[in-house]
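During the no-cost extension, the postdoctoral fellow (Dr. R.K.) reprocessed legacy sequence entries with the updated structure-token encoder. One reprocessed record is reproduced below for audit purposes.
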Amino acid sequence: MTSRDIRTSSLTAAVDPLGPLRDPHEPGCDVFLTGTVFLDIIFTGLDSAPVRGTESWARGMGSSPGGVANMATALARLGLRTSLAAAFGDDHYGEYCWDALEQGEGIDLSMSRTVPGWHSPVTVSMAYEGERTMVSHGHEAPPPAGPGVFPQCPPRARAAVASLGPAGEDGWIGEAARRGSRIFADVGWDESGRWDLSSLADLEHCEAFLPNAGEAMRYTRTDCPRTAARLLAERVPVAVVTMGSEGSYAVDSGSGETVHVPGIAVDALDPTGAGDVYVAGFVTGSLAGWPLADRLAFAGLTAALSVQEFGGSLSAPGWPEVAHWWRTAPDGLRDRYAFLDELIPRGTAPGPRRRAVPTIGFRHSA
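Re-encoded structure tokens follow.
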């Protein structure tokens, strides 16, 4: 099977979770996002952390687009029309990432640009003991020509996914909210160490905020993820705290509903990108109008499926993988995930997916 066949079968096997909601007057874009695309080089099969002064050999290795590409790919593979605004280097790494996202995943890159003379940022990720350690290198891309960050700032979309930070307000997020986009946000590590919730100015525009337990507890000065979620729900309509293998906990401040969905036990190979996949699953369920508990369950399932493959973006599952899991799901999970029965068409078969590979790309298709 050629790479073209793989791309085609992947796209045609997709389910449109928003199909019943679509109309001719809707935005052409379901989800808009922007950020930095990295080339990820992932080492797996390490028995322990590398030791200074020694050489460690990994049993597995792969390369794939990373950074914001993790989220974009996860959204597209779940059937959402995804638009990404990002800078790409004009080196081989940038060309590979652009092709993998646009041609391989069907992501709209019309608002992205190639920057002459700028090399692609790179992250090396080492997975061991259920965790990962990353080393990155890159330089900030020069600003685009013209008055705005994007050709249109930003495009009309059902939703936008943002990564909040302590640097202050990011103008495009508020503008997207004013243009009708539902804003979903996660947050990165606060290198300043202040963990000041008031510094996340764009939180006021968000419909949902999805930090992990460590981030949530630091921002709320608590030692309990559930307490942290309840405090965050005072600042945002829906607060979701992810807790790794323990699942996730959410609070809807409007209805007062609280939900805990346990994690799904799997043999994890590489957790890179699992948080992005979780957010993509939650956004999918939110745009489709699912109950809060189903959104958490689906997000947790997609994240659990992703960690069984190495790589960030290319480990994200699509509907064929979800269908395969549902057909073989343990009896103890059948009731919790019964909502999948109405979503997955009968006869949906697992299809081939692009996976992270040990090289940027072979010269000839297999």
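Confidence is low (pLDDT under 50) at residues 1-13. The chain is about 30% helix and 20% strand. The remaining legacy entries will be reprocessed before the final report is submitted.
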